Amino acid sequence: MQSPAVLVTSRRVQNVHTGLDLTVPQHQEVRGKMMSGHVEYQILVVTRLAAFKSAKHRPEDVVQFLVSRKYSDIEEFYQKLSSRYPAASLPPLPRKVLFVGECDIRERRAMFDEILRCVSKDAELAGSPELLEFLGTRSPGAADLSCRDFSVLDTDSQGGDDGDAFDFFQQQDRVEGEGLPTLDQKGQDAGKSSEEEEEEEALDPLGIMRGLLSAWSTAFPALLILPPVLP
């Protein structure tokens, strides 16, 4: 999940003991192709916890952000909490229905709001890695580890890219170098001795055969193995 934009707010955190407030104030219908679509429930997060802040925020800052989650996302999060924290007393999850109407959506939003308010009031759940993952935020330790890992990968990948680029240009130089003898051969042909030119002129005074030979070699260079025997 992509990390949301976190903004400083003048709001006060209601749950002082956890430093986190969670509410579901509204929902949004996302239309897809044809008749498809889904509903996303917008979760408002207000907190002073360092896990949700960036380096630019001060310790005393209260920040807020919105995240949108589908029913399936919230259901998965709910099941994780119920499995790992069986002692936690959570409100029931909204029932699944095949066709969701407007009344069902409003009911789900209200029940999700109740569930997340309960989570934000529980000190253990409010600081759980499951909640951080659900809200799109990683714990500081995991973030540091990721930075170290990506730093190593970036260094390695950059080195590999530079090496590949260097080899590529070396290969280009080799190809160009291999092409130079062909140009030299043309230079040698251009620098024929006057005796050879006089001999060719004597055998072909009108230059007909030389013209045909030149045209043939240009059009079919691969087929020209031996020059034709002049009469």
UniProtKB/TrEMBL annotation:
<keyword id="KW-0007">Acetylation</keyword>
<feature type="domain" description="PX">
    <location>
        <begin position="19"/>
        <end position="142"/>
    </location>
</feature>
<protein>
    <recommendedName>
        <fullName>HCLS1-binding protein 3</fullName>
    </recommendedName>
</protein>
<dbReference type="GO" id="GO:0035091">
    <property type="term" value="F:phosphatidylinositol binding"/>
</dbReference>
<dbReference type="InterPro" id="IPR039701">
    <property type="entry name" value="HS1BP3"/>
</dbReference>
<comment type="subunit">
    <text>Binds HCLS1. Interacts with the SH3 domain of HCLS1 in vitro.</text>
</comment>
<dbReference type="Pfam" id="PF00787">
    <property type="entry name" value="PX"/>
</dbReference>
<comment type="function">
    <text>May be a modulator of IL-2 signaling.</text>
</comment>
<dbReference type="InterPro" id="IPR037901">
    <property type="entry name" value="HS1BP3_PX"/>
</dbReference>
<dbReference type="InterPro" id="IPR036871">
    <property type="entry name" value="PX_dom_sf"/>
</dbReference>
<keyword id="KW-0597">Phosphoprotein</keyword>
<dbReference type="InterPro" id="IPR001683">
    <property type="entry name" value="PX_dom"/>
</dbReference>
<feature type="region of interest" description="Disordered">
    <location>
        <begin position="177"/>
        <end position="203"/>
    </location>
</feature>
